[in-house]
Amino acid sequence: MQYSEKLMDHFKNPRNQGVIDDADAIGEKGNMKCGDIMKVYLKIHDDMIQDIKFETLGCAAAIATSSMLTDLAKGKTLDEALKIDKQDIVDELGGVPAPKFHCSVLAEAALKDAIEQYRAQK
Ligand code: FES
Questions:
Q1: Is 46 left (phi over 0), alpha (psi -120 to 50) or beta?
Q2: Which InterPro entries does the record cross-reference, listed alphabetically (predicted)?
Q3: Are 33 and 27 in contact (CB under 8 A)?
Q4: Can you name the residues that pair with 54 across neighbouring β-strands?
Q5: Domains defined for the chain, CATH in brackets
Q6: pTM for the full model?
Q7: 34 catalytic, yes or no?
């Protein structure tokens, strides 16, 4: 399976990996097929994502797409962040091999879960 250079870079040097202890929202999504899990932590101010971190127990594609998601979401408003979809993440990584495309769903879904949780609390 051929991974793009950018994907390998995000896998080996994930951006924004870790936990936000005083997160305003936490989202989580698991992949039923493989059992991989992504958790996303958000710090939100004035409806804007000030900080975002992730923990992903998963394959190379899952980690790279999680990392790219955090890069794309940081600094965006919640409405803008909700528009980020798996294809945007895949495109930014220079593609993901077809059998691994489903891994990018985790990142998109975990972020949406976090935003929904945040809005539900309000
Ligand atoms: Fe599980 Fe990639 S194989 S997310």
A1: left
A2: NIF_FeS_clus_asmbl_NifU_N
A3: no
A4: 17, 40
A5: 5-121 (3.90.1010.10)
A6: 0.95
A7: yes
